[in-house]
Design brief:
about 170 residues, alpha/beta, five-stranded parallel beta sheet, two-stranded antiparallel ribbon, about 50% helix, about 15% strand
C-alpha cells in the first residue's frame, strides 16, 4: 500500500490518523485543506479546482503518499489514484465535542501549550465564532448528505476501510 486517502468530516481524527500511519510506514502525508488553501507571503489563498488537481498530480508523480481531508469534487481524482481509501466515520457526538473543545482550547490560549506538550496538530485557521459556526454547519451538511457520499464510495469498496475510531491502526497493513 503506497497511496492512502483518508476521508472524514471535520474533527473526525483524519490528521491524527494520517500522522500515525505516516510514521508507521514512512510515507509522507498531506492535508488537502493546505492544497486548497495554500500559504503565500500575503496570507492564505484559495486555489482553483484545476490548480488543486495540478498540485495533487505533482505529488502523485513523486510516488507514495497519504492525503487526508474532507470530500470535495476537486480532488475526487484521488479516489482512483489511491491504493486504499479510509473513511474515518467517527460518531457524531464525538466530532461535535471535538469541535467545541478545539474552539475553547484555541480561545483560552491553551492550544500552544497543548501542542507543545502533547503533539497535537497546528491549526491553519482562526478559531473564531464564525469558524465554529461553519464547522457545525459542515458537520450538519455532511450528515444530511451522508447517503450520497456513501453511494459515491460504493465503487471503491474493494479498497475501502471504514473506521469509527482513528486508533484502530491494527486494521491498516502496509
Amino acid at each position: 500500500m503506497k497511496k492512502i486517502l483518508i476521508l472524514g468530516i471535520v474533527a473526525s481524527g483524519k490528521t491524527t490518523l494520517a500522522k500515525e500511519i505516516s510514521q508507521k510506514i514512512n510515507i509522507p502525508w498531506y492535508e488537502l485543506d493546505t492544497i486548497v488553501h495554500h500559504e503565500t507571503p500575503h496570507g492564505r489563498n484559495k486555489r482553483t479546482p484545476d490548480e488543486q488537481i495540478a498540485v495533487i498530480q505533482d505529488i502523485d508523480r513523486h510516488g507514495a503518499w497519504i492525503f487526508e481531508g474532507t470530500d470535495r469534487a476537486s480532488y475526487r481524482c484521488l479516489w482512483d489514484m489511491a491504493d486504499r481509501i479510509i473513511f474515518l466515520d467517527t460518531p457524531l457526538w464525538k466530532r461535535k465535542t471535538r469541535i467545541l473543545l478545539r474552539f475553547i482550547k484555541q480561545n483560552l490560549g491553551l492550544l500552544r501549550f497543548i501542542k507543545q506538550n502533547l503533539g497535537i496538530e497546528k491549526s491553519h485557521y482562526t478559531a473564531d465564532a464564525q469558524m465554529l459556526k461553519m464547522m457545525y454547519k459542515w458537520t450538519r451538511d455532511f450528515e444530511r448528505n451522508r447517503v450520497e457520499f456513501e453511494k459515491r464510495l460504493q465503487p471503491y469498496h474493494h479498497k475501502l476501510i471504514i473506521l469509527t475510531d482513528n486508533k484502530k491502526l491494527e486494521l491498516i497493513h502496509p
